## 1
Amino acid sequence: MPVFHTKTIESILEPVAQQISHLVIMHEEGEVDGKAIPDLTTPVAAVQAAVSNLVRVGKETVQTTDDQIMKRDMPPAFIKVENACTKLVQAAGILSGTSDLLLTFDEAEVRKIIRVCKGILEYLTVAEVVETIPDLITYTKNLGPGMTKMAKMIDERQQELTHQEHRVMLINSMNTVKELLPILISGIKIFVTTKTSGSHGVEEAVKNRNFTFEKMSAEINEIIRVLQLTSWDEDAWANKDTEAMKRALGLIESKMGQAKNWLRDPNAPPGDAGEQAVRQILDEAGKVDMRARGQGASPMAMQKAQQVSHGLDDLVAKVENAARKLEAMTNAKQAIAKLIDSAQGWLADPNGGPEGEKTINALLAEAAKIAQRCEDPKDRDDILRSIQEIAAMTAKLSDLRRQGKGDTPEARALLNRLRLPSRTSNDHGVGQAAIRGLVAEGRRLANALPGPFRQELVGKCEQVEQLMAQLAELAARGEGDSPQARAVAQQLQEALKDLKGKMQEAMTQEVSDIFSDTTTPIKLLAVAATAPVDAPNRDEVFEERAANLRTTPTDSEPQRRKRPLSGRPTRAQWRESRPPSNPPETSRHKWFLPLVFC
């Protein structure tokens, strides 16, 4: 576990700690281990106590001795020792003082990031008042730079952290926010389109938008919480109930301003963001409403409390069981990580002794612990089967080495099967097949997009194919682990990430288009088809609405989005397809209604 929680503090304090360590305990330890001692309080206090005791004993000795030279030389020596001890105590404060200085600076940097995050949280609430397409465009333009700035600052911060757990938490939360952003924009667009067209489903669109908004807000609040952590223990042993109460308090405080403004304004419209803020605050406060009103002992309150208690007991039992499994699997994984280097070293040595076999067996025992805790029977069986195969090959390899055959072709074949895969190992084309499948899906999706978007997505697919071909060529030449191959692999990872993002955007747009209003053009065409014969511009209106229907997708055909119908129906064609009966002229198109709405 790292001593300092950021790399900047570590890079400054580590040399200082080393110098102080050499100066203070050079005579005690010399250069045996050379480790830096971050906290010098204890050794310095011990030195100071020893010096004080030495001076006290020396002064008592001087007073009782008859040696005049000793009486003359000892007082200056006392002064030198006491001065040196004072300087030593002062030097011990260098590390703690420098650490306090750097921590203060680091806290200021964290507050900068938190201010940006809170600004994003405040602007996210504006989504609740966006009701037109121009408002949505303005909202997106204003939100984009802020999200980019926050993502950049979070990325720089996670690279600076030395605690891997905190880095992973920040990366995961930021990735979730990035994934939810296009979903939020799409949800707002669906709400605006539905409300503008007067179609059904406005309430569902509002719920969908608010759900995404609340999820993004929760992730950003989690980012703010993790940014303020300085040690893993602080997070691991945090009181979860207290953290939940703090999150509830934070939500109430964030909504309080909107709620008060809405309550102060007598002309505020019902149902806007202010009223929603009031309702959210009441929902949080309602959790303790009964006890706050002194009804905690009422039969209804006690019944509900008992139900909640039973539910919490079940939940706690499930969580504890899952936590025990997770802890056991984590411990096994850490044990494997400690043993893997030793096992690989034994495999690389043709003359390795029997201790290597014991290491591999211990590694396999830890892997078996993980297998026993797998929920999926297939995964468990696969791991156990692999363990048995590796154990058999290890025993055979160890037996060959005991016979002095550790460098034979048979031993080398076993060794190649036992070694962990590297960049130069052959995965039998599985990776390339997966990438080709992703590219094929991207091309299929591009065919359903309009021109500029199609070209952009196709360009991403071609870039991935080119980089994959370069990497495959380098691997075929035996240069799969060269610097050039690593650079190409990094570029391929970035290209795949971009392709995935573009495909997600395209799918979001496709879903938005599918759930847009598609019934109005059909209804208008039905009205035109049943219009009276003497209606003005009857044929022109019919032709215009039929043309509009050609470019509108129906609910039953979402996969053919914006694909024109085969041919444009004319009034003569409608007449020819009528039933043989000859209805009156005034109702000659009424037969069309069942056809339209079937």
Note: Residues 26-38, 234-241, 420-425, 552-598 have pLDDT under 50 and may be disordered.
## 2
Amino acid sequence: METTLDEKQLSEILKKSIREVIETEFEREIRPRLLEIDRILEMLEDGVLAQIATERLAEIERGTATISLDDMEKKYAV
């Protein structure tokens, strides 16, 4: 007994296969890279905040701070 598939059935099978390949590749290749990029962005953000805090402390110690702490929090809110 031979089974034949019509064009619509073949199209659905192809769509499903393509979707599975894309999902698999995303999980295997893209997701780990996105997670690494996210970690890098977090490190950069931490570095920027540390630099801002260091500069602010130096301004306070020199007595040259021209912006209030409340304004600093608003300006650099992350």
Note: Residues 7-75 form one domain.
## 3
Amino acid sequence: MGCLRSFSVSGGMGAASLSKPDLIHDDTVELARRIEKTGVSALAVHGRNDDHMNFWSINYRRVADKLRDPAKWSEIADIVASLSIPVIANGASSIMAARGALWNASIFSPKGKLPWEDVKKEYSILWDNDIKSTKHTLKEMIMYYSSLELPEGKAVIKSESLEDLA
């Protein structure tokens, strides 16, 4: 319920669904309890909400939330305390990884986080992935650490094969 991607919002999904309060539940803790009763094995919660509305929603964020804004751990703690299943969120029993892993997948490495340039090179050479997805991931890495306007960004944009990316 929090995806801000244009394809999701334009289709009335993701964050767009939050503009229809009749489709969401005002009390997220109660909603989390209801979700738990369906038999799910875990629940993922995005730790941001809209301070101007009278609800706290599962996986909700708004355009105004900055990606680096801290999660609202106290609100997540209320959900964690009310459930017996694992809650996947910042500071909870497990984690969600999206942009952090997209920008540098070595966050999962037992050796620790590696320089993004090394990760970028390894990603484009070693992993059997289609060119479109690989280019998307590499562009995300470059936009986070650098700029697509620099030569490395332009090279990724122009690439037509995995060999070009290596």
Note: Helices lie at 6-10, 28-37, 73-82, 99-103, 116-126, 131-145, 151-158, 162-165.
## 4
Amino acid sequence: MEGIQTIQSFISMLDKSLVELTPEVQMLASKPLEEQLQSMKDPLDRAEYLNTISYTLTSLMFAYIKSKGVDTTNSPIMDELARVKSHVQKVKQCREKQKGLDTQQHSQTEQTKKIIQSNLNGRHQEPAISKSNFRGRHKRFSDETSLKNDTKKAKQ
């Protein structure tokens, strides 16, 4: 008796899961695949979407075969699941590589911004034109010497 109740509870859980899955599948089937893929700009997003669809369909087929009592250990469905899994891993690796490049590019951009800001804000220790360029080139005239020269010229 307990075995029957356990099986009935599994069947009712499966039924609930299928009811929840139905709207999701209908949403996927509402537009043609080409339209859905064209709306995505990023190739990795497209690959993830295709992987999701492949995994969903393969998993549903696996569940169907399993419910029919077929041995799935050497079934082609297992090969298909392994293939989909490898594609999912490839997309994950590409995402991680892209994140690494984005992080590196972001850090380089930040370093460049810091250099530019420090140059524009005048945080240099030395002035743009050094004082040594002006030494010994300017002559100072005092008012007394210029007045004496003016009076001498006027007397002559």
Note: The two ends are 140 Å apart (CA to CA).
